[in-house]
């Protein structure tokens, strides 16, 4: 699986930005693609995730009401639409893929064995600053 992110950049607080994740190499249509971010000096955290077989979504609290995720099956691309951006959203944003979103510890369900997603993109920098 190969994942390539794009769309990062410098924006001012309150502005919007859309990140793209072009995916290839999947052997089935049943998988999960998640967006994660890592700010300087902080651990990587989940932002949003989608299970492609049923479209179920998983959100971090920080993303609720401001971020959304969408899937273009024809283009094999997942988008992260971010609005009302804040300086604390500054981070390197990664897309990653695996079998299901509940593998991510923050979204794990009873019976899941949380672990890191298996495939990762190279990341794209998002900087929110005036």
Describe this structure in words.
With 130 residues, the chain is mainly beta. Helices cover 0% and strands 46% of the residues. The chain has no helices and 11 strands. The strands form 2 sheets. Strands 2, 4, 5, 6, 9, 10 and 11 form a 7-stranded mixed beta sheet that branches. A 4-stranded antiparallel beta sheet has the order 1-3-8-7, with no helix packed on it. The model has no long low-confidence stretch (mean pLDDT 93).
What keyword list fits this structure?
130 residues; mainly beta; seven-stranded mixed β-sheet; four-stranded antiparallel β-sheet; 0% helix; 46% strand; globular
Strand content: over 45%
- Give the CA-based shape: globular
Low-confidence region ranges? none
Specify the helix fraction band: under 10%
The mean pLDDT is: 93
For the biggest sheet, the summary is: 7 strands, mixed
